[in-house]
């Protein structure tokens, strides 16, 4: 399932891989009270710094996140949490009790 998957405005959608990054940004921000740095994403996804940076640029270009130039940890999610694959990403089955 590498085609388009959730929608954040009813007009744009994102790929599964983009959804995993968006879900990570959402969960990290809620856990730590601040957005992740690119190095946090690099460690989590086990990818190179240029790979993470390219994904961040792509997410921003597609209107899925917003950043403030020159400000560290300034990623702002522009996607509704309901559109993110968070439960799947965390391997939580909502029909089973925790």
Automatic annotation (TrEMBL):
It comes from Bradyrhizobium cytisi. Signal peptide: none annotated. GO terms for biological process: proteolysis. GO terms for molecular function: serine-type endopeptidase activity. This is SOS response transcriptional repressor. It holds the Pfam family LexA_DNA_bind. SUPFAM superfamilies: Winged helix' DNA-binding domain. Residues 13-73 form the LexA repressor DNA-binding domain.
């Amino acid at each position: 399932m590498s085609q388009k998957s959730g929608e954040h405005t009813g007009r744009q959608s994102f790929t599964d891989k983009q959804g995993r990054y968006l879900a990570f940004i959402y969960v990290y921000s809620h856990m730590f009270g601040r957005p992740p740095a690119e190095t946090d994403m690099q460690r989590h996804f086990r990818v190179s710094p240029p790979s993470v940076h390219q994904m961040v640029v792509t997410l921003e270009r597609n209107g899925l996140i917003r950043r403030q130039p020159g400000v560290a940890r300034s990623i702002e999610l522009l996607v509704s949490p309901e559109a993110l694959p968070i439960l799947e990403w965390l391997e939580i089955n909502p029909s089973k009790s925790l």
